[in-house]
Specification:
The protein has 346 residues and is an alpha+beta fold. It folds into 2 domains: 3-181, no CATH class; 200-268 and 282-325, no CATH class. It has helices spanning 3-16, 32-43, 57-61, 73-78, 114-121, 123-131, 147-153, 200-204, 222-228, 247-251, 260-263, 283-286, 290-294, 298-304, 314-325; strands spanning 21-26, 84-91, 104-105, 136-139, 157-159, 165-167, 174-181, 236-238, 244-246, 254-256. Residues 328-346 have low confidence and may be disordered. The structure holds iron/sulfur cluster (2 copies). One iron/sulfur cluster is lined by residues 162, 205-207, 209-210, 216, 221-223, 258, 260-261, 341.
């Protein structure tokens, strides 16, 4: 099949799977500037407790190795036709809100775990490629792949000062799914836009975790602290001006993730609603309080969060966070290092 008709067919399948946008880039090593910036970020320890980001550096630099793990650079270059990275953006935005007084959960985790939902929805697209005799791999936030970099390269969007991938005209409430396959299609060309630079994400961040140049300090990012950080939460956040902010005050009722740097972004003024029912707010979370979380048994937690991304924090992590918003934080440690905000997009 000629590259352009393959591209049209794949884009159609992505839209049928519920994506709002899809773009294509030629798979090749990431550019030197981006590779060096990532290596520097790791060397400076800014990835904090996310040690897994230190692994598979070679693959992160060249996504073709996801399909050809044993190939040398020479062999990859010699393979005729080449490889393509397809990036699909799925909105998870929905207008339903949790009730006031409920323990706040970031919107991306209101429904079912996107890893499972998107993998299932992209099965027909992967099967289509495989039926053509091609090799294909669907990656949803778990492979050593720089999704936001490839989303920019594929023309899907640009990266805001808040570190999020912003789909032009649609905002940042998106999951990214990437498909790499061994056939060429016409690339869409990189997105050259940048965000408005209004600084609202920086000034509204409850932990003052964002620097004006878009670097995120995980020691003060509530997304990192409530989801990825293991051990006790700090009593207070050490702000850049030397002052201390009580953790419970910074959390502001959040027990899982934080949406603030997206909520205030002008690019999110009119986000498209998700086409996927499983991403909408689960009824059980609408009025769930910190006290109810604290009384959950392991069985109750497993049942309430079955198939939910919230399971990542485990019952112990969720109860630790619930304790903190109930004003009973007993932690002593301060997480160290810096990082981009953990998920919504990587
Ligand atoms: S998710 Fe964004 S607004 Fe929330 S603490 Fe982290 S950087 Fe700040
Ligand atoms: S809030 Fe303003 S500075 Fe931050 S990402 Fe959005 S447009 Fe850019």
């Amino acid at each position: 099949m000629a590259g352009n008709s393959l591209k049209t067919a794949l884009r159609t399948l992505a839209l049928e799977a519920g994506a709002q946008a899809a773009g294509f880039a030629r798979a090749c090593p990431v550019d030197t500037e981006a590779a060096e910036a990532f290596d520097r970020w790791i060397a400076e320890g800014r990835h904090c407790g996310m040690g897994y980001l230190e692994n598979y550096g070679e693959v992160r630099r060249d996504p073709r190795l996801l399909l050809e793990p044993d190939a040398s650079p020479e062999k990859l270059e010699a393979i005729s036709g080449g490889y393509t990275v397809m990036v699909c953006a799925f909105s998870y935005y929905h207008p339903e809100c949790q009730e006031s007084g409920a323990a706040r959960i970031a919107m991306y985790a209101h429904g079912s775990d996107y890893h499972d939902v998107l993998r299932r929805r992209l099965r027909p697209l992967a099967a289509y490629l495989e039926e053509m005799g091609l090799k294909a791999r669907v990656c949803i936030d778990t492979a050593p792949l720089r999704e936001r970099y490839w989303a920019v390269r594929a023309g899907v969007g640009f990266i805001g000062r808040n570190g999020q991938l912003i789909v032009d005209g649609m905002g940042s409430y998106f999951f990214l799914a990437t498909v790499i396959f061994n056939a060429p299609v016409e690339p869409d060309g990189p997105c050259r836009r940048s965000c408005m630079g209004c600084g609202r994400c920086v000034s509204h961040c409850p932990g003052q975790a964002l620097s004006p140049d878009g670097i995120v300090d995980a020691r003060r990012c509530l997304s990192y602290l409530t989801i990825e950080h293991r051990g006790e939460l700090p009593h207070e956040l050490h702000l850049p001006d030397g002052s201390l902010r009580p953790m419970a005050e910074a959390l502001g009722g959040r027990v899982y993730g934080c949406d603030e740097c997206q909520r205030v972004c002008p690019h999110n003024a009119a986000p498209p609603e998700t086409a996927i029912e499983e991403f909408r707010l689960r009824p059980a979370l609408r009025s769930l309080t910190a006290e109810e979380i604290l009384s959950l048994t392991p069985e109750g937690f497993a049942s309430m969060f079955k198939g939910s991304a919230v399971k990542r924090a485990k019952l112990s992590g969720l109860q630790r966070n619930a304790t903190a918003i109930a004003g009973k934080c007993h932690g002593h440690e301060q997480a160290d290092g810096e990082s981009t905000p953990p998920r919504t997009q990587t």
